[in-house]
Design a protein that fits this description.
The chain is of the alpha/beta class. Helices cover 50% and strands 11% of the residues. The protein is built from 14 helices and ten strands. Strand 8 and strand 9 form a beta hairpin. It binds fe (ii) ion. Fe (ii) ion (FE2) binds next to helix 6 and helix 10.
């Protein structure tokens, strides 16, 4: 078992069956003699997989009788946060545990803002708007994708408009993240594929974003090196726990990379595809990423950054031609989407050339586009969508 600490102060505990340390760690973050009043925030699928029972048994073993809020939904809204706050208040909660995918972790974080600082989650849209101390949070991800366990932001949608709000504060970052890859075996194959593609996209976008610095690039390189190698192994053999451990650690590093370095145009272009055609987030970002890489590689310095990233994973020589290396990286991402058995073109899920202008206008308005290393406007997004739609729709 290994451990390391992130800039936001999150201590990351890594190892198979690391969840067995949950009881000891819960007492440690609480820091008092009495057992912390604890709420486990999760979803029904995680309950069905047996992970919640296991966590509660471990906690009971150290005298913690935890309550469970198991009503987390995908893409949590302000209403979901309010329901979680009600449960946390009713239990007089002193410690939060987020157990599940990114939605469970974000709901626990969102609940922490409102529970400790009052008002509603909308009040914390932005960064650093929580004046009062927040409760300790332990994050236990069961998917290898969002990297929310290494971030101080909760992504919560307004319940009425469904616009996503990024609510961040250094105090909202989990005190401890437990990366136990054995918990990811319960993911369906499609979830493994889409969350894994999302993690790789986080690594590639954060590696070249305008916001990035040395620390974010270090996390991005480590994330990319781990995930580009491990994702095909996990897709081929879902029981390969070594590969799952690499994916889990890689996704966490990618989370740290985007916490520090932000994202880019692939995420901006993906969100309208998800909104209009219900294309899963990880699939949508991976569909757009190869086109974004080829577009960004038009800038020599960005092409060199892609070459360096690809070289750091041992896929091209460090002195390879930057433009060719960047295009090889784009091809490698397309190959991964194919290996996942997913279509490369949004046309396979109903998008048409007629929609390009609308999609491009929406993509240009996304905040992530601001950190793309080459300027992107609506015209550039139109070209990116046209290129994606022209890609053969058949995954085989
Ligand atoms: Fe993402």
């Amino acid at each position: 078992m290994t451990a390391f600490e992130l800039p936001a102060g999150t201590r990351v505990i890594v190892g198979l069956d690391a969840i067995d340390r949950l009881g000891e760690l819960a007492h440690e973050v609480h820091g008092r003699d009495a057992a912390p009043r604890t709420l486990v925030v999760t979803d029904p699928g995680i309950v069905a997989a047996g992970h919640v029972d296991r966590a509660c048994r471990i906690l009971a073993g150290v005298g913690i009788d935890a309550a469970v809020f198991d009503a987390v939904r995908e893409n949590p809204t302000s209403d979901d946060v309010d329901a979680c706050v009600d449960a946390a208040r009713a239990h007089r909660t002193e410690l939060l545990i987020g157990l599940g995918g990114g939605s469970s972790l974000d709901t626990a974080k969102g609940c922490n803002f409102v529970l400790t600082n009052g008002g509603r989650i909308h009040d914390y849209k932005g960064h650093g708007l929580a004046a009062e101390p927040m409760l300790p949070l332990i994050a236990i991800p069961t998917t290898s994708g969002t990297g929310s366990e290494c971030q101080s932001y909760a992504l919560i949608a307004d319940a009425t408009t469904h616009m996503k709000m990024a609510c961040g504060d250094p105090k909202a970052a989990p005190r401890i993240a437990i990366l136990d890859a054995s918990l990811t075996r319960s993911q369906p194959h499609a979830v493994t594929a889409c969350t894994g593609l999302d993690a790789i996209t986080h690594a590639v976008e954060a590696a070249v974003s305008t916001r990035g610095g040395d620390a974010s690039r270090r996390h991005a390189r480590e994330a990319f090196r781990l995930t580009i190698d491990a994702l095909p192994r996990v897709l081929a053999h879902g029981d390969d726990l070594d590969a799952r451990a690499d994916m889990h650690l890689g996704a966490a590093h990618a989370g740290a990379a985007i916490e520090l370095g932000m994202l880019g145009a692939a995420h901006s272009a993906a969100n309208p595809l998800t909104a209009h055609y219900a294309i899963t987030h990880g699939h949508a970002v991976a569909m757009m990423l190869p086109h974004v890489i080829r577009y960004n590689a038009g800038d020599d310095a960005v092409a060199a950054a892609y070459r360096d990233l690809f070289a750091s994973a041992g896929r091209v020589a460090p002195d390879a031609d930057a433009g060719l290396a960047a295009f090889a990286l784009a091809d490698a991402i397309e190959a991964l989407v194919r290996e996942a058995g997913l279509p490369l073109s949004p046309a396979a899920q109903g998008a048409t050339m007629d929609a390009v202008q609308t999609l491009a206008a929406e993509a240009a308005a996304q905040w992530t586009a601001r950190f793309n290393p080459r300027a992107v406007d609506a015209t550039a997004f139109e070209s990116l969508y046209r290129a994606a739609l022209a890609t053969e729709a058949d995954p085989t």
